[in-house]
């Protein structure tokens, strides 16, 4: 089990800056890759240093995201390793055909970096990026990473260089608490991490929701005497089903947590596995509803939809309070 911090005041990690900084370091170290990007990358940002100092390997596609993803496939087919950054919903929604038919079907070594995932404070329904996990899960050949913090995002940037398969790295909008104190831990694609022990129930979360799940676990422990396990499902696809099985058998209760639509995301993937394996546990989901979201500050949006720590804890209480209903043929 990797050592964790879960200390909001210790550090706010920003994966949106960390990915660019790491690509810049890799370029300086002699890694050979091409970087394609959309119009939201400012030259003052960390990725801006890469663009300024290595212009021969960076291509700005403006707001032509489908062209960007399609061209990234072409570059990969010509022998290049490609990192491709796309803003928010324009990767999964506007460039869905290119992800499916160009990147995944051709099984090319392109790492797509989807920034500004989840809810938006000011962009409105067109800029909420909450349907992506459902889409990504249905596309063959696609590996999907949802880092819990900036340090984990950096690990995925490095690992993806030699991964030789299509990968999407989903990054949230702003700073999130650093989850891991010791960055020397080994990150394994397809292998989740148990970040906090507990035998009464288990939270399975991805992305910045790992921290919020941990905060909910602390609330449950202090107010209800409930010991909740917290699992970081940083690799959304392929999902670590063995850690799900272990949590189900050892706790008997699972609640998934994600800043994504309740339809087709992490909760759906975990529920499908549990049902197919005949693992009859108490189960619940803490996610965004099947609605176009309200406008507001992100923390207010999370609270409104019950995916803040108090809301997640309340969902867990309701699930734990359910009486099992057995179907008898």
| Count of DSSP strands | 14
**Total discrete domains:** 2
* Oligomer state of the chains in this structure: single chain
Structural class: alpha/beta
Mean pLDDT: 91
The major sheet is characterized as:
7 strands, mixed
- For CATH, the homologous superfamily of the largest domain is named as Thiamin diphosphate (ThDP)-binding fold, Pyr/PP domains
The CATH C-level class name of the largest domain: Alpha Beta
Widest sheet, order of strands: 3-2-4-5-7-6-12
Q: How much strand content do the residues show?
A: 15-25%
Number of helices: 11
The CATH topology assignment of the largest domain is Rossmann fold
> What helical percentage do the residues reach?
25-40%
CATH architecture of the largest domain: 3-Layer(aba) Sandwich
